[in-house]
């Protein structure tokens, strides 16, 4: 496992949802159902590649909503990006209530993205399916 074809030298494109957090309870009343809820998270890519798009689905991948992105860092003098970017998306509370699952995927500047299903490998490394 120490030969060049197996050594991992770059991270893959990945993303995560931070809000709502796991097992968070959302208050449902006449006021909150009229107000949008803001989903939040972060994304990153390897090799200094910029994350250029983050999308969220609330219907198992049938439709995707493009998120607002916030790049806190500027590229270095070589045009590389080494930090996470943060993303957010305002969604209708009723649509959120109707969804069974929320998933996110990111795209980098080389159009690498996260697959729907986990890709198995012997070492269990570089898993990056929708999360």
From TrEMBL:
Q: Which residues cross the membrane?
A: none
Entry-linked Pfam families: Mo-co_dimer (PF03404)
Domain Moybdenum cofactor oxidoreductase dimerisation per the UniProt entry, residue ranges? 6-131
**MF (Gene Ontology):** heme binding; molybdenum ion binding; molybdopterin cofactor binding; sulfite oxidase activity
- Biological process according to GO: sulfur compound metabolic process
Q: Does the keyword Heme apply?
A: no
Q: Tell me the cofactors it needs.
A: Mo-molybdopterin
Q: Which UniProt keywords apply?
A: Metal-binding, Molybdenum, Oxidoreductase
Which superkingdom is the protein from?
Answer: Eukaryota
Question: Under which name does UniProt file this protein?
Answer: Nitrate reductase
Query: Which organism is this protein's natural source?
Result: Daucus carota
- UniProt lineage: Eukaryota, Viridiplantae, Streptophyta, Embryophyta, Tracheophyta
